[in-house]
């Protein structure tokens, strides 16, 4: 997408008259926005504008945008990876979400969600209630000065909702990177993880195993979210995943509700050993070891798997077609398998799709063989 350049980023004092003028413009803009919103809703349109004020700590100076418009893409993610529940995730190539951020002149600090495509009309366009808007609001707070303009957002959903592929995290990561880019990218990706955590807390829980890889790419080990402490794990060479998303929704909140409050010590020991094996496989570039570890979760998969129609048969079919291992991606229902190469991946993909249909009665939204994404959020 072509991007129009403005002047280089600068921070300028805001005089009292200018602040008063900007406040008056703000009030008029919000009024106009509300009137337009009512009109659009009456017409049944999807384009709406709901503004939210971001209030930076430093209110005496303003930072100007360097571009009129910036678009960013963030990829799908696979969280948990078997025994890595809430502490391991990775980004994968292929589908993802795109957010386009546009400058709103003379409306400092406002965040407006202009439109959303690909969600079937299900997502809120009220900025404080949508992960895209929350991410934008929080990003503006990290710029180091108050923004001299507002931001309008357009979201294109490339990931299905409730898919277990980090849909909300992809939206938040793309939003944060697009808004940050409008102002010349003053906030590094690792700092934007805080933005994503605030967004994730509002929609799925306070965890970084999706938002961190969506922003940074690769494998991310989360040691702690409070305080934030993580490690990016390098993987040498290509790693291939099979992702099969059946036509069945598994909301994160519902899938978390089935988790046991207490688990036997034997299962804890198993998952500790398999978690160590997962990290070892990543660091040594051993896809087979990663697959074996991914296949051996004794705590989460056993209680979530039965909620996904046909999952047990899908796992068995993946093994039979040559996968190193298969488990649930995130909260599900997407099933993920590790394979040695794309050719094997195609066989595994076909077997998994067939098993979902024959044993679970489910058609599939998508089935793909993809590689590890080492870049994460990027400009488009």
Walk me through the structure.
37% of the residues lie in helices and 26% in strands. Strands 2, 4, 5, 6, 8, 9, 10 and 15 form an eight-stranded mixed β-sheet that branches. Strands 12-13-11-14 form a four-stranded antiparallel β-sheet, with helices on both faces. The longest helix has 27 residues, at 16-42. It is α+β, with helices and mostly antiparallel strands.
Quick take:
Mean pLDDT is 87; it is low at 1-59. It is globular and about 60 Å long. The chain is an alpha+beta fold and 380 residues long.
Mean pLDDT: 87
Runs with pLDDT <50, length 5+? 1-59
User: How many structural domains in the coordinates?
Assistant: 2
Shape: globular
What is the number of beta strands? 15
Largest sheet: 8 strands, mixed
Class of the largest domain, according to the CATH hierarchy?
A: Alpha Beta
Count of DSSP-assigned helices: 11
CA radius of gyration is 22 Å
What is the fold-level CATH name, i.e. the topology of the largest domain?
A: Ribosomal Protein S5, domain 2
> How much helicity do the residues have?
25-40%
Structural class: alpha+beta
């Amino acid at each position: 997408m072509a991007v129009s350049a403005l002047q280089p980023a600068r921070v300028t004092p805001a005089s009292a008259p200018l602040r008063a003028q900007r406040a008056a413009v703000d009030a008029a803009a919000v009024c106009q926005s509300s009137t337009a919103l009512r009109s659009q809703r009456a017409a049944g349109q999807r384009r709406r504008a709901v503004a939210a004020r971001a209030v930076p700590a430093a209110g005496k100076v303003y930072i100007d945008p360097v571009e009129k418009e910036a678009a960013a893409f963030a990829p799908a993610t696979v969280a948990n990876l078997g025994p890595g529940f809430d502490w391991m995730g990775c980004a994968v190539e292929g589908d993802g979400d795109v957010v386009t951020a546009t400058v709103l002149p003379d409306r400092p600090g406002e965040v407006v969600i202009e439109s959303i495509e690909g969600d079937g009309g299900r997502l809120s366009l009220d900025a404080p209630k949508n992960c895209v808007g929350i991410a934008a609001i929080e990003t503006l707070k990290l710029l180091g000065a108050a923004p001299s303009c507002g931001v309008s957002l357009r979201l294109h959903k490339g990931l299905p909702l409730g898919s277990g592929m980090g849909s909300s995290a992809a939206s938040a990561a793309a939003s944060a990177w697009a808004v940050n880019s409008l102002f010349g990218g003053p906030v590094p990706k690792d700092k934007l993880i805080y933005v994503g955590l605030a967004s994730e807390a509002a929609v799925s829980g306070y965890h970084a195993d999706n938002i961190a890889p969506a922003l940074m790419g690769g494998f991310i080990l989360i040691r702690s979210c409070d305080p934030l402490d993580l490690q990016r794990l390098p993987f040498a060479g290509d790693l291939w995943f099979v992702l099969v998303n059946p036509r069945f929704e598994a909301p994160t909140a519902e899938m978390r509700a089935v988790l046991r409050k207490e688990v036997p010590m034997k299962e804890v020991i198993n998952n500790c050993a398999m978690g160590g094996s997962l990290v070892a496989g990543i660091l040594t570039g051993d896809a087979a070891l990663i697959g074996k570890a991914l296949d051996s979760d004794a705590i989460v998969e056993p209680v979530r798997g039965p909620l996904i129609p046909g999952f047990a048969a899908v796992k068995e079919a993946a093994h039979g077609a040559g996968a190193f291992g298969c488990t649930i991606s995130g909260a599900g229902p997407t099933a993920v398998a590790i394979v040695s190469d794309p050719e094997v991946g195609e066989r595994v993909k076909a077997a998994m799709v067939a098993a979902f249909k024959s044993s679970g009665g489910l058609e599939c939204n998508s089935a793909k063989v993809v590689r590890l994404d080492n870049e994460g959020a990027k400009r488009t």
